[in-house]
Predict the structure.
Amino acid sequence: MRKKRPVLEVLGVVATLVLAAFAAVDASGSTSGATPRSKLTVMAPAAPGGGWDLASRELQQALRAGSIVNNAQVVNVPGAGGTIGLAQFAEIGPDPTRLMMTGTVMEGAITVNGSSVDLLDTTPIARLAEDYEVLVVPADSPFETLDDLLAAWRDDPHGLAIGGGGLGGTDHLLVGLTARAAGIDPARLNYVSFAGGGEVMTALLSHTVAVGVSGYNDFRDQIEAGNLRALAVSAEEPVPGIDTPTLVEQGIDVALPNWRGVVAPPGISDAERAELISIVTEMTQTPEWADALSRHRWVDSLLTGDEFTTFIREDQARVDAIIEELGL
């Protein structure tokens, strides 16, 4: 476990307060005697409408439609890049009827917020899918291409306000990586953090910031409506259904997937973990999940059990190194 830092002392109080709310999801009584097949509650450690919430509800729908779980529910516990939910989740005990959605954003928040709990303090179940970040500008922006943006950015790094999600999250990491690859000192960035993609979009459309970064789906409707112009996507290779070139294709050697996956509480048995892996694997084979992947332009990246644990360990180290190198 990570050493607790003073900046997060208040989170213990908040986590205690929301713990009761999460436990109260089962209003009919205790989960004693319940099994993951009869009842499964998924925590989305963010507010409704965000990426984790969306992934959790698509998971819920596929579990229900596929008759894999009799009663699948979603509960939201927002705050601090998911680390409030994580701290709470790690304390609920070895309950195999609980899952939490997680991903790259939480890894960054764990480090930047100095979380006393990390993802290896849970029981990793499965990585599900990856989606990608996109750099956008308002339709009336003078930046017609990524090269236009980079030229102005190099001339005045601090003068160009770039809006994205929380500090240390995927948006922030992508901005820092892109700046470094373009020969711009990340320490000179003017990065403005917002609670989510909706707030970033509002800031863009009101010209509060010149550039926005978030998940593609946060901006998709406005891009298709012609109100925003997408300049680059953070995928390694072109993504089917996204008519925007990657950073790599445009000479910036940066690719940053935003993976999403689920973990269980610590302390569950090997048999309970195996059952949860089986449930999630069955879910990924449903037509409903295939439809969700297609609609949201997500890329299937199923990885389960010990392989997922290894991935988390390595990816957290990668994110930590990026944050340290960029001084974020």
Summary: The two ends are 22 Å apart (CA to CA). Strands lie at 40-44, 72-76, 98-103, 123-138, 161-164, 190-193, 211-215, 228-233, 257-264, 299-304. The mean pLDDT is 90.
